[in-house]
Amino acid sequence: MENKTLYVGNLAYSADEQDLDIAFSEYGCVDDIKLMRDRESGRSRGFAFITYSKEEEAAAAMAMNGKELAGRPLRVNTAKERA
After folding, report:
1. Is residue 35 part of a domain?
2. Each residue of 18-71: pLDDT tens digit?
3. In this structure, how many other beta carbons lie within 10 angstroms of the beta carbon of residue 12?
4. CATH number (domain holding residue 22)
5. What pLDDT digit, counting tens, does each position of 25-34 carry?
6. Is residue 61 part of a domain?
7. Which of 5, 24, 45, 67 is spaced 20 to 30 A from 61 at the CA atom?
8. How big is the CA angle at 59 (ends 52 and 76), to the nearest 5 degrees?
9. Terminal alpha carbon distance of the chain
């Protein structure tokens, strides 16, 4: 299975898709960004999933783990399939 999707946690609630695109496109072609939002308020839930077109780009983007975005250190891992 190809691991082209990353889980990005510990996001500042103020961070949006554009902030993520700017930060993560440095590592390759970002295919999709899913910023998880609360259904009722529409406010960010503090995590997102970022999909790259190539596995190597996703692996390179793991370098963002621990880097700061909007004042908070990010947690970046390979996304796991839902059971």
Report:
1. yes
2. 999 999 999 999 999 999 999 999 999 999 999 999 999 999 999 999 999 999
3. 15
4. 3.30.70.330
5. 999 999 999 9
6. yes
7. 45
8. 85
9. 15
